[in-house]
Amino acid sequence: ILNVEQSPQSLHVQEGDSTNFTCSFPSSNFYALHWYRWETAKSPEALFVMTLNGDEKKKGRISATLNTKEGYSYLYIKGSQPEDSATYLCALPNAGKSTFGDGTTLTVKP
Amino acid sequence: ETGVTQTPRHLVMGMTNKKSLKCEQHLGHNAMYWYKQSAKKPLELMFVYSLEERVENNSVPSRFSPECPNSSHLFLHLHTLQPEDSALYLCASSQGSSGGYEQYFGPGTRLTVT
Question: Three-state SS for A82?
C-alpha cells in the first residue's frame, strides 16, 4: 500500500496571503503525481499532472513543484482569494492504481 | 451534455435492494474509474476500466459489481449492501489508464444504505 501524506490537514489564511502545502510519498517506483482541487458540492478538478523530477507547473496564481528523489511535491497559491477555498488533493497513480492523500483543506477569509 | 455525468445524484436503499449507479463521459476518453469516499477517509479507487476491459479491482467486495458496456458508459451494480457502504461514489475518466493523464470527475452519487 502506497503511503501518500498531505500536510497540513487544514489551513486558514486571509485574502491576499500566499500559502503552500505539501504532498509526501515514497520516492521508489514513482510514475506520476496529480494535484486536484475539490470545492464543496463540486467535482474534483485536475490542476496538474507532474512526471519529471524538478517539474514546475503553473496555472494562474497556483503553481507546483516536484522532487521525486526526496519524495515530495509543493503546491503554492499566490495572493489567495476566497474562491481558492477548497480541499487540495494529491494522488499517485501507478500501474492502474491511484492512491490519494487525505487532502489539505484551505479556507481563505475575505 | 459535456464532461462526466452521474445518475442518480442521491440514492437511499435498503440492505436487500438492488440498484445501479450510472456514469457517462462525453470526452472521448478510453479509461473510466469508480471511486468511493467515506466520511473522513481519502478517496479509494475501486475499479479501473481501460478500453472496456477491467484492469484493476482493488479488493472490492462482490456486492459491488461494475460493468463497462462501451468506452462512454460505466455502471456500478449494487446488491445486499451494508450500512458501512454509505458513501459518496465518484466516477472519473481519462484519456488513458497509465497514470500520466489527468482524470475528469463526475459530480458523484451520495449513497445511503439503511
Answer: helix
Contact A98 B102 (CB under 8 A): no
C-alpha cell at A76: 503554492
Measure Cα distances from A4 to A16, A23, A56, B11 in Å: 29, 7, 20, 31
- Whether B105 and chain A come into contact, CB under 8 Å, resolves to yes
Task: Give A64: exposed, middle or buried? Use CB within 10 Å, 0-12, 13-18, 19+.
Answer: buried
How deeply is A77 buried, as exposed, middle or buried, from its count of CB atoms within 10 A (0-12, 13-18, 19+)?
A: buried
Q: How many CB pairs (< 8 A) connect A and B?
A: 61
Residue from the list A45, A95, A102 with its beta carbon closest to the beta carbon of B42: A102
Q: Given its phi and psi angles, is residue B101 left (phi above 0), alpha (psi -120 to 50 degrees) or beta?
A: beta
Asked whether the predicted pLDDT for residue A96 surpasses 80, the reply is no
Q: Is A14 on the interface with B (CB under 8 A)?
A: no
Per mean pLDDT, which range of A18-22, A53-57, B52-56 is the poorest? B52-56
Closest CA to B81 of B89, B73, B72, B71: B89
Residue B66 in contact with partner chain A when CB distance is under 8 A? no
Q: What is the pLDDT of residues B27-60, one digit of tens each?
A: 999 999 999 999 888 999 999 998 888 887 778 9
Q: In angstroms, rounded to a whole number, what is the distance separating the alpha carbons of residues B73 and B26? A: 9
